[in-house]
Fold these 4 entries.
Entry 1:
Amino acid sequence: MTARIERIDLNTDALLIENTTDLLYLTGLELSRGVLGIAKEETVLFVDGRYFAKAEREAKCKVRLLEGNAVFDWLEARSVKTVEFDGAYTSYDRYLSLKGQLKSQELKAGSSLLKEMRVIKDEREIEALKKAAALTWQGFQYIEELLQEGISEEELAFEFEFFVRKNGASGLSFEPIIAFGENSAYPHYRAGKARLEENQIVLIDVGAVVDQYRGDMTRVVFFGEANPQLEKMLEYTKLAQQKAFEAAVIGAKFGDLDRAARAVFAKEGIEEFFTHSLGHGIGLETHEFPIIRAEGADKDVVLEEGMVFTIEPGLYRPGLGGVRWEDMVLMTENGPIRLNDV
């Protein structure tokens, strides 16, 4: 954690970090509220009484009680003139509060301050992500065996959570997407009361959290006979994922992966049914930087060793159903590695 803080390149005299995920990344502490003040030659974590004793025991930096004007008195004592905050996270009300409490300091907004640091995972993070991916896969295998006529989407979602929690997960990456039949045509569907019928498609998108890091995968199962149209859609989706996977080489741009997948769909005249981005970074949060899309803000982000992201093309036909095939991918010096289905 100390090494991570030392890697931060200050653009101002001091930096205030309040994003709870960034606080976890830099301190190792799960906090619902706190302020990490980083200045030249000193870092201080400000927490309220709920976390003070734990922070004093575990934090690798100075800890002070978050009360009154403690943060601003610290800035004043260090003769700080300019203070940077996370403009992508801080609400306007919080900005006005900060501005009103600062004395002589100038307040400057940064944007997603740690996203470029967090996108490259270290060995400990990669190990945690591998565990999360493996347990997610095991959970999928478990509920796949439970597929039977009459079982509900909600029941399968519960069984997945029960299984992964019993086997080491601290929680779920997101509410499970278990979709039967036509419900699979909605990418962000949530498990409901629908009950499985013979010859239906089943879309399962799930994720388990292990050691604070998140798993994420999607699979499609045909319960009984497969609908020929959906079967063909799945064939193209798997091919699109493979083409994107093959395009994932160090030095390539993330936009290239999306283009590789969409080219498969475009060739078949079905690109209009691929309605979301190809994937996203993953780590302490399920959806992290970068978002993988050919025309998106992150399209020119270059693939580097240590990045972990998802590749999840899909096709959705309302009234018929949808398919998606998703894996977590780790970039290594020797190329990409799938972390699911291993």
Entry 2:
Amino acid sequence: MDLSPSYMDVGRKVRLSRLLPDGRAVIFAFDHGVEHGPRDFPPQHIDPRIILSKVVEAGVDAIMMLPGMARITHDVWANRTALIVKVTSKTNLRPEAERLLQSGFGLVEDAVALGAEAVAATVYWGSPYEDQMLKQWFSIREAAERYGYPVLQLAYPRGPSIKDRYDVEIVRYGARAAAESGADLIKTYFTGSKETFSKVVEAASGIPVLMSGGPKAPTPLDFLRQVDAVMKAGGRGVVVGRNIFQHPNPAGMVRAIRAIVHEGEEPEKAVSHIG
């Protein structure tokens, strides 16, 4: 019996090892220009090359962005950090009733052409459009598998029946659904403590779980304590945007986050990297 792995299996494993060099990852999320609009960025970071240069220099393991942004900033990140291409998105310009739907925003082939290590797509578990997004998800996953690409699912519980999207029972439900739908990596909400987030990790059944950075925390130390709790709960890293690019010293924030994720530093020590 031939037990040799397929070309696709090898490609997926190689790319995952690049994204998580020691089994952990600090990923910079940079899809906010579409998801939230330019107002999310401080004036000094409206030019994407400025913020991307800072985070690349500080040593993020990967950057997650949409295909168009990856194309126009390739001179900044290429051969300096890994790329994850997000192929779904939505704007807040559309009617509010339709904001629980992620639309196609690129192709898996775009990620391949750009030299990415993975593709990413969002599923709003609990949305009235859940079925539509699942069809989209499985189409993306099928295409990614053909090219040996891992797929990161942004597993976000959102819908009219969900009163608290950060409730541990809701978040762990979404994480389990992401694992059962074939995600290779899962990005989801922080549930408030090491004890509750460990239940999310458990529900993911061995699929690496990464914390979504979310809105800017009251202080850098507050955010670093969240990162620390995630790692101590068995999480495999973070996917962070606003808590980096909305900080006056984004490179310092990256260094501090890296110190916790990759070196196991305590938050009170890691905060000194910010300066």
Entry 3:
Amino acid sequence: MRHKLLVALLLGACAATLCADDWPQFRGAQRDNISRETGLLRSWPEGGPRVLWTVPMCEGYAAAAIHSGRVYVNDYDREQNEWCVRCLALDDGRELWRFREKKRIRPNHGITRTIPAVDGKYVFSLDPKCVFHCLDAKTGAETWRKSLVHDYKAKIPPWYNGQCPLIEDDRVILGIGGDTLLVAFDKATGNEIWRTPNEHKWPLSHSSVMPAELGGVKQYLWCTLFGPLGVRASDGKLLWHHERKFNVAVSPSPLAIGADRVFVTGPYEAGSAMIRVQCTGDTFTTEIIFDWQENEWNAEVHTPILHNEHLFAIGKKKRGLFTCMNLAGNRVWDSGGQAAFGLGSFVMADGLFFVLEGKTGMLRLIEASTTGYQELAHAQVLSGHDVWGPMALSDGKLVLRDMQKMVCIEVGQPATVAQSGADNKHDGGS
């Protein structure tokens, strides 16, 4: 009885205060763009959330991964022509280490655009020219590397690499292109666990690999310019491919819906589709459930969030409305008349959406409702054009960026020990 009471008290304390969660890779620990943190603020003061630190960054969209109080981010030093991976302290933004490599990269809609993956021991980062680096998470020393171009005959996609690595258990998984579709590398050594042959020579684009279980089989989903596909997680066997052509690039990742559906969307005239993936014996087949053409709805950059049997995302049409859709393909609500977000990013936590306006840097706090758009607060936290980089949330701190800087703001309960200065800026950026 005493043990049960203690557990209840601990759970109650956790519900009343902040419960922290790491954000170790693209779209968070579970790759769903949802943080499990609780105790976040549901209103902001007049001046907006407290700014804990600001750090200069090279122009781009490369966003943060957060693990054990450390922020890991890809960057570029234009003066030295050096590609960098930087490790910052989450509390105050001070730089703990920096990995550097000479690499000339010209601006092309920004220079950096991807997120490292971190497990506390290793940092995995795919640079703009498709060299894959494994670094020591504590020191930044390089442990191993692979070149997708030289080792697998891949081609660097337009606007450089846009893919973020996926880490799971003992492995890190990448989509490749060239003579190989996907590879699972052993995290510690870089040795291949398996590789998937690329018989059709489907090229590398910007979509990132996603974990799923479809038809009772654990698999990895990926999308090329010729459509989504599934690869068996145990041995890399290609299980299925659904033909759907994308023009120039595809950035959003395939999103598994339940045990037998996959939602895909993409830029330009790609539209969106819900695909049923079925398994009979050892054979997988696909069929369209619904198909939204270019004049209906599509997301250009960011993968939707699945929450309470609804999809939430910023659509391309009408200046980027934040939209709620049910799984039957019907629009439930959007932010029309209240806010437009361009190509901004979004993240969910504690029943809330944090959504960025891509053309202004305005951050809006929105109720995670399936019945209507309800804004709770807004604040001007970033500025300039093309504020497209994803966000990361850990320990009540939201890390986000524009084309010049990375900012950390306090969206959880204030720390018990006050930080020194509400806007603690650090030089040493590139």
Entry 4:
Amino acid sequence: MEYVFAALLLHKLNKDITEDNVVNVIKATGVTPDQVKVKALVAALSEVNIDEALKAAPIAAPQPSGPASGPAAAPTANKEEEEKKEEKKEEEALEGLSALFG
């Protein structure tokens, strides 16, 4: 995960996402970078438009704390179905990221 964060940080700062830059960001945190993961990340991101990927990424809305009440409250079955759908989306997103690291 730290490799993806390093790439996002470099992108945000308008720096090139190169092996050296990713290694330098990881080293700055006090961690010894894994060269294989760095190479895989840089290779995978070379064909990705990061701005478009960020726009297309699902963003989880904050959930209200406590049980819902009143006429706007959804039935329990619908709430459970929505939670299952959200979990599935999160799992699919994580599967896509895990492909970067084998």
